[in-house]
Amino acid sequence: MGETTRVQARERRRQPTFFLKQMSVHHQNAIDMAQTELDDGANGDAMELAQQIIDSQEAEIDEMKTILATL
Questions:
Q1: What is this structure's pTM?
Q2: For the chain, is the Cβ count within 10 Å smaller at the N or the C terminus?
Q3: 1-57: per-residue pLDDT in tens?
């Protein structure tokens, strides 16, 4: 395998890793904001939505961690 091919293969492997790590950070930021709404919010609808966001984003982070473990 030539050097260019090795570099290209390495880059293809890194792309999903980069994506998943960045999305995990993005999701954690959403969780943090939603938690602030739960802690300080006064509107029941917004607080319900905040809890739904926490639940879904935590599940997606877990899924991304599972995928990362296979890469």
A1: 0.79
A2: N
A3: 566 677 766 776 678 899 999 999 999 999 999 999 999 999 999 999 999 999 999
Residue type, 54: I
> Rounded to whole angstroms, how far apart are CA atoms 61 and 26?
10
User: DSSP class of residue 42?
Assistant: -
- Residue 41 DSSP SS3: coil
Residue at 59: amino acid letter: A
Nearest-angstrom CA–CA distance, 61 and 59: 5
Instruction: Give just the sign of the alpha carbon dihedral 46, 54, 52, 24.
Output: positive
Question: In the structure encoding, which two tokens stand for residue 14, read together?
Answer: 């890194």
Whole-angstrom distance, CA of residue 68 vs CA of residue 27:
15
* Core vs surface per residue 32-49: b (16+ CB within 10 A) or e: eebeebeeeeeeeeebee
